[in-house]
TrEMBL record:
Organism (species): Arthrobotrys oligospora (strain ATCC 24927 / CBS 115.81 / DSM 1491) (Nematode-trapping fungus)
One Pfam family of this chain: Snf7
Domain of life, per lineage: Eukaryota
Protein name: Vacuolar protein-sorting-associated protein 24
Compositional bias of kind Basic and acidic residues: 213-224
GO biological process: vacuolar transport
Location of region: Disordered: 190-224
Length: 224
């Protein structure tokens, strides 16, 4: 019956609004889950950095080479986690803006009987649809907003978006994270630290070995 009504009188604005609002809420919940996961991962990584900073050499009480290497690798990961979290919080704000503008658009339609495509909504939607976390549901929302005439049909190059942050983080950001969590203890260590692919220590100790496979897996999850 609803299909027949839509065919004769066009789509029901109330139904269109419910669908758009539902998709926006779905995307918001998805972002909240991602943000909470990153917060948990950030706290865990900070705890691991603090733990590594307590393991000192038995000879001069400074951080061992393996401990320094582990701290620097974990600090790199923490920088990536924080950048990802910032990106998702920015995306959540964009999504909230879309939700507010969608409600305003339907309110204007109810009063004036017409809808006008919004460039601001298009810009935010174009940025959000490229998020790996929201690709599927944002495509659905894009179709719903296009059908409701809130946005025009978009192309990939219509609205520019900011590029993703670079994979390799600046060393100064890593140093700031280490100083924030460990303090001067890392800087005062007399053991030089290199960044090889696989940590190699002169005095291997079982509890100082870094689980690089687990760390790489966690970093891949952040990038995906």
């Amino acid at each position: 019956m609803q299909t027949i009504k839509s065919f004769i009188w066009g789509p029901d604005p109330a139904e269109q609004q419910r669908k758009c609002n539902s998709l926006i809420r779905q995307n918001a919940r998805q972002l909240d889950r991602q943000i909470n996961t990153l917060k948990t991962l950030e706290n865990k990584t900070k705890s691991q950095i603090k733990s590594a900073s307590t393991r000192t050499s038995s000879t001069n009480k400074t951080l061992s080479k393996n401990s320094q290497l582990e701290i620097r690798l974990l600090a790199r990961e923490l920088v990536r986690i924080r950048k990802q979290s910032t990106r998702l919080n920015t995306s959540k704000a964009q999504l909230e803006s879309v939700g507010m503008q969608v409600r305003e658009a339907f309110a204007v339609r109810k009063i004036q009987g017409s809808m006008k495509a919004s460039t601001d909504v298009m810009r935010n939607v174009n940025a959000l649809v490229r998020l790996p976390e929201l690709t599927g549901t944002m495509q659905e929302l894009t179709k719903a907003l296009t059908a409701a005439e809130i946005i025009s049909e978009m192309t990939d190059d219509m609205v520019p978006v900011e590029e993703e942050f670079e994979d390799e983080e600046a060393e100064e950001e890593v140093d700031k994270v280490i100083a924030e969590i460990v303090g001067d203890k890392f800087a005062e260590s007399s053991v030089p630290v290199d960044m090889p692919e696989v940590p190699v220590g002169e005095e291997p100790v079982a509890d100082e070995q870094i689980d690089l496979d687990e760390m790489r897996s966690r970093l891949e999850q952040l990038r995906s």
